[in-house]
Amino acid sequence: MGYEFVEGNEAVARGAMMAGCDFFASYPITPASSILHYMLELAPESGTVVIQAEDEIASIGFCIAAAMAGRKAMTSTSGPGLSLYSENIGLAIMGETPLVIVDVQRQGPATGSATMGAEGDVQFTRWVTSGGLPVVALSPATVAEAYELTYRAFGFAEKLRSPVFVLSSKEIGVTRETVDLDAVELPPRIERRRVPPGQERYLPHYFESPADVPAIADFGGDYVARYTTSTHDQAAYLTTKPDVIEKMLEHYAAKIERAADDLALYQEDRQPGAEILVVSYGIISRSAAVAVRQARARGRKISSLVLQTLWPVPERAIRQAMTGVRRVVVPEMNLGQYVLEIERLAPDGVDVVGVAKMDTTLLSPELIIEKGGLI
Question: What is this structure's pTM?
Answer without folding.
Answer: 0.97
